[in-house]
Amino acid sequence: MNTPLINTVLSLLFIVTSGLLFTEVATPFLAILAGLSFLNLFLGKFYKKLNGLVANILAAVCLVALFVLVGVSDTVKLFVSMMLLASSFKLLQAKTVKQYQTVCLLVFFNLSTVYLFHQGLFETLVVSVLYIVNFAVLGYLTSPQSFKAANKQSFKTILLALPIAAFLILFLPKLPAFWQLPGPKLAKTGLSEQVNPFSIAKLAESDDLVFRVEQQPEQALQAPYYWRSLIHDEFNGSEWLISDILKSQQYNPIRRTITQSNGVNYQVIAEPSSSNWLFAVGFAQSDNSDVHSTYNGLLKRKGNLNKNIKYAVTSSQASLSLNEFEKRLYTRLPKATNPQTTALAKELAAEHMNAQGYFNSLLDYFNQQQFAYTLTPTPMYGDNTLDQFVFDTKRGFCGHYASTAAFMFRVAGYPARVVSGYLGGEQTKAATLNIYQYDAHAWVEVFFDEKWHIFDATAVVAPERLNGSLSQLGDLNEIFNDNLNFGLKRWSHFKAINCLRIHLEELDYKWTNWVLTFDQESQQSLFDSLFGNKSAWLTPLIVLGTLLLSFTGYFLYNKRPIRSREPLVDDITKLYLWAKKQGIEPVDTNTPLQNIALIKQQKPRTEAYLSEFEQIIIEVRYQQQSYNQNRKNRVRVLLNSLKTAK
Amino acid sequence: MNSTIQLIIDDLSTVIFGKQQQIKLALTCLFSEGHLLIEDLPGMGKTTLSHALAAVLGLSYQRIQFTSDLLPSDILGTNIFDAKEHSFSFHQGPVFSQVVLGDEINRAGPKTQSALLEAMEEKQVTVDSVKHALPSPFFVIATQNPVHQSGTYPLPESQLDRFFMRISLGFPDKHAEKNLILGLNNRNYDDLPVRINPVQLAVIQKEINKVTISNSVVDYILELVAFTRQDNHFVNPLSPRASIALARAAKSWAYIEGRDFVMPEDVQAVFPSVTDHRLGLNTGDSGYALKHVPVSL
Amino acid sequence: MFKRPAFVNQFRQSVFNKLLKNKHKTNEIELQHKTIYVLPSKLGGQFLLIALLNFVMGINYQNNLILAMAYLMVVVLVFAILTGYKNVRGLSVKYQSINESYAPKAPFARFQIHARSHCELIKLVNDNLESETLSLQNNEKKTVEIALKCSERGTYGFDRIKIISHFPFGLVSVWSYIEPTETVYVYPQPITAEKLDTQLHDNDEHDVDNAQVKAGSDDFYQLTPFVQGTALNKVSWKHYAKTQQLLTKEFTSDASQELALNFNMLSGNNEHRLSQLCFLVNQLTDQQMAFSLTLPNKHISKGQGIYHQTTCLQALAEF
C-alpha cells in the first residue's frame, strides 16, 4: 500500500471539499480544516502519523473552535463542519487499510453534504470528480494496481452506474420527506425585511442568479417587470419594516379573484436561497404544492427546503378595495420625523387635490430637482435622513427614492407601501428571463382609484433602468462593474467571453430546469405522459422489471462461456458439451481426436460428421491452416447435423 | 507411411516379434540424432534389437560388452608406443564407429560409464589431452539391466539425460513367444538387407526438421513439462533440454507415421520414452503426467 | 474481543456442512455458479449504510443530487457483486502438495490457481491464516502456499480452505471452499538417537554380497564419519590406524548397508521413540542406505530411496 499517495489524495480531497464550502462555513474554521489537511499532507510525506496525545489535544482544540466559529444556531452547518472535522482527524490517525477505508466512507458522506449548499453545474462537476477519485482510492487500497489504473476502473464503473442511477431517479416513486430537518442557511445575499438605504455607502452587488422566468410566447408579460417579493408597510422614522399585522395577514384566506384564464401564466425557477420569499409580477397566485400564496398576492416557499424550485404563477392586476383598517395601516407614520420632507409633501398635496395629480407632481419633483442615481451614495445618519436626502445630497439608489416617495404619499394621506423585489431581467432566449441579484429593486405602491399603482422614482431619475437589466445600462455600467464581485459578467463587453457566458448560462438553465427541479409533480407528469393513467401500479412494475432485466442481462453476459482466442477451440468445447449431454464423458487428458473416436464408438451414426470434423481439427489445429469462413460454416453445419443425427 | 521406413520396420519385425511400437520408438530416437537406451531384464531381446537396428541402417558398428572390469581406455582407445617410429600413436577404441552398441552398460564401473557418456555428449574423445573427433553420424545404443539387479552401477541421474530416449521391450505376447519358441524369427540379424545409407539418413533428418508443430501442440508439451516441475511426484523435473527433445521426438514420430505435422497423439506416444529416465522414474511408472495433464484443445 | 461460545461454532460448522453438501470435498475445484458465494463485505455493509444515510438526506431535503449519489452507491455495490462474481468465475484451484513437515512446524499446502480469464486479488484463507494475494492474467497459472493449522505429530484431514476475493473496491466478499481429500502428515520432530547399538542390525546383514566384495577394489565413493549402526566391516580401518578417526567407506551403489529400525529397541516414551526413528530414517536415506522399519502395528520391509523414506515417515506420523 502506497500510504503517502493515499494520504496525499485524501488530504487534497478534504481541501477541495472545504473549498467548496468556502462561502457557507465560517472562513476561520475552514482555515483550520485546510490546516489539518496540510498537516496530513506534510506528515504523509514522511510516513508519519500524529501520536495519540497530540491528536487528542488538537481534536479538543478544534472542537472548541468549531463551536466558537461555526456556532450552534445553524445546526446543519454545525453538523457538516463536525463531519468534516471528524473525517480529517480520522485521516490524521489512519494507519491500516481498514482505517483508510473508513475515511473513504466518510468522504462519501461529506461529499453529499456539499450538495446541501450548492447544486450548480460547476460544483456538481467538481464533486463528481471527487467521487471518482474517492472510489479510486477505495479500489487502490486493496489492489496492487497503479493509482492511474484505479482511477480508470473507478471512472468506468461510475460511468456504467450513472445511467442506472439516473433511471432510478426518474422512475423510482419520489417519497415525501420523512421528517422536517432544519434547512441550511445560505450565505447568499437576498432581500432583507428592512429597507434602510441611508446608512449604506456602497451597494455591494452580486451577479448570482436569483430566478429564471419561462414565459409562454402567447402570454408574454409586459415590461417593465416589477418582480414583487416583500411588502414593507411600517415606517419607523428611518427604515421601512414588515409589520406584525402584515405578517399575520399572510395566513388570511386567499382571495380567489384570479384564475388561470384571466391572468398571465408563466413559470418561475427559483434558485436556492435562505429567504422564503418568492417572486412574481403583480398580484400572483400559484397552485404549486411547495408554494404558499399569500393574502397580499405574494408568494412564499413552504418549509425551509434549500433547493431549486419551479412553480407556475398566474398574475393579474387585480382590482380590490381596501377596508378602513387597511387604509389606516398603509397611512401610518411616526410622529415628528423629517419635518422638511413632511412640509414639502403637504405643500405639493395642497397644489394637487386628486391622487393622480399628486402622483405626477412627485415624479416631476424628482425629475426636476437634479436627483441622481448612484450606487455609491453618501451615508446619512441621524433622525431625519429623508430630509438630508431630499434637500441635501439628492444622490441615491432605488431604496432612497422608494423610502422617500412612500413617506411623502403617506404624509398626503394616500395608502402607500414600499415593495422590494427585482426589476427587469436579462433576456437569454426567446421566452426566458434571468434575474440576478444586482437586479434587486425597491419601489412604491400607492393606492388610489381602487387599485395599487406602482410609483417608481427611479423611472424618472434613471429611465434606462426600467428597460432591461442594470448590466445593460450604459451610463452606470462602469459604476455597476466596480460594484460587482468578480465574475464572467464583468467581462461581458468582450464578445467571446460574453458568448461563453451565455452558453454556460444556457447549460445551467437546462441543468436547473431538468435536473434540480425534478420533483414529485414533474415525475407524476412524466409518468402520465409515458403510461397514461394506469401508472399507479404500472410504474413500479416497469421500474423493477427493467432493473431486473438489466442485471440479469449483465449476469448472463458474464456467464457466457469464456471464448478462446485460438481458432476452433470453442467448437471443440461445444462438441464436448454435446457429448456430455448424450452421456459420453470426454476425458480431458485425451486428445480431441481420441475423444472423438470415443464418441464415434458410442454413436456410430455420427461417424461421417465426426470424421469430417476430425479432418478440420487436423487442418486447423495441427497443420496451422487458416480457420476461414468456409471451414467455420462447415463446422457449424456439422455441429448442427450432429444434433439431428443422434 | 514412408515406404522405406515401413520396410525397415518390417525387417526389424522379423527379428523381434510383436514389438512394432518399440521398433518405431527406436527409429524415432535415431532419426532425431539421439542416443538410445534399452532397459529390460536379461533375455528380452535387447541386444538383438540393437544389433538389428545398426544392421538395417547400414552403419558401421562396434559392440562393447560392458563388464565390471572394463576400463575407460578399453572403449576410447589408447596411445601405444610405436617402437619403429619411436613415438606414441593413438589406437582407436571401439567407440570410433558410427554405431556403438553398449551391452549391459550399467555393469561397468562409474569411470568407464562416464567415459562413454562424455563421448556421447561431446561427439569427441580426449585421450592424453589430445582430442579425437568421432565419426558422423554417431549413435550409441546402450542396453542395461533394471537398476535393482545386483551387481550393477546405476547410471548417474545427471548423465542419464544424455540418452535421448529410454525404451523397454517388455514381455512378448503369447503369439509372439510361441513363434519364438518355434524358431520362426530371423536369427541372422547381420544378414538383414541395408535399407538406408548415411546420406538418406541425413535427408530424413532434414525432412523431420520441416515437420510442422502447431502452437496447440507446443502448449501441450509446455503443460506437460510444467506439470513435472510443479508436482512433487517427480524427483527430477524436466529441463528445457527435455522439452526440446520432446518436440523433436514428436516430430520424428509424426514423420514415421507419414505425416508432416505433429499431433498431441505423437507427443503422448513418445512422452514416456523421452522423459521417464530424465524424471528418475522406473519404467513401470510411465505416463503419470499424461494421465494428469489435460490436452490443450 | 468478543469470543463466540463453542456451541455456536459447532452449530455454525454443522450448518455449513449441511449447506455445502461435500461440494467442496475435492482436490480440484472449478469456481462455478454453484460453488461461488457472494455477499457484501463488512466494508460493503458500511458503504450501504452511508448510501442509506445519503438517501434519507436526499429525501428530506428533496435534493435530487444527493439522491442520485445514494442510488449511485447502491448501483456500484450491485455492480461490485456482479464484477466480483465474474472475477472468480472459471477459476480453478487445484491441490498440489504438502511440504514435508516435522513437528512442531505446521505444514504448508501448495495449491495451483489457474485463471481462465483475468482474475484479481485472490487469496486463500484458512481461518486466521492467509496466503499472499494474487492477481492472474488470462490463462495464467500460479502456485500459492498456505499454512495449515496442524503442528503436532499425526495425521489430519484437510481443513476447509477458503478461496476469497474482495475485488473490486473491497466492497464484496466472493468466496468458495476447497477441502482436499488428502491426508496431512506431520512427521515426528527428529531427535538424534542417543544410543543405537548393533542390536539394531538385522541378522541378514552378514550375508555376503558382491558389492562388499568389490569394495576391495578401492572403488569407493567417499569417506563419511562413522555413524552408530553402521556395519563395522565398512569402517576404513586404514584411516583409523593412521588418524584414530572412525570413517566409513561408502561405495557408489552401496546396497550392502541393510539395517532394521525397530520401535521396540529404542528407549523413551512413544513420541521420543518416534522422533528418534524419524531422525534415523532421514539420516539413513541421506546416506543412501537400505533399511527396514518395524513399528508395533506395522512393518515396512527393506527399501531405500525417497519413496521408501516417505512411506516410513508416514507410518511414523500415523502411529
From TrEMBL, chain A:
Keywords per UniProt: Membrane, Transmembrane, Transmembrane helix
Record field: transmembrane: 12-43, 50-70, 124-142, 154-172, 537-557
InterPro entries: Bact_TGase-like (IPR052901), Papain-like_cys_pep_sf (IPR038765), TgpA_N (IPR021878), Transglutaminase-like (IPR002931)
Pfam families in the cross-refs: TgpA_N, Transglut_core
Domain called Transglutaminase-like: residue spans: 390-459
Protein name according to UniProt: Transglutaminase-like domain-containing protein
Species this protein is from: Pseudoalteromonas lipolytica
UniProtKB/TrEMBL annotation, chain B:
UniProt GO molecular function: ATP binding; ATP hydrolysis activity
Residue ranges of domain ChlI/MoxR AAA lid in the record: 231-279
Annotated ranges, domain ATPase AAA-3: 35-165
Statement: the UniProt record of this protein carries the keyword Transport: no
SUPFAM superfamilies: P-loop containing nucleoside triphosphate hydrolases (SSF52540)
Domain of life: Bacteria
Keywords: ATP-binding, Nucleotide-binding
InterPro entries: ATPase_AAA-3 (IPR011703), CbbQ/NirQ/NorQ/GpvN (IPR050764), ChlI/MoxR_AAA_lid (IPR041628), P-loop_NTPase (IPR027417)
Protein family membership: Belongs to the MoxR family.
Name recorded for this polypeptide: AAA family ATPase
UniProtKB/TrEMBL annotation, chain C:
Entry keywords, A to Z: Membrane, Transmembrane, Transmembrane helix
Annotated transmembrane regions: 65-85
Official protein name in the record: Uncharacterized protein
Originating organism: Pseudoalteromonas lipolytica
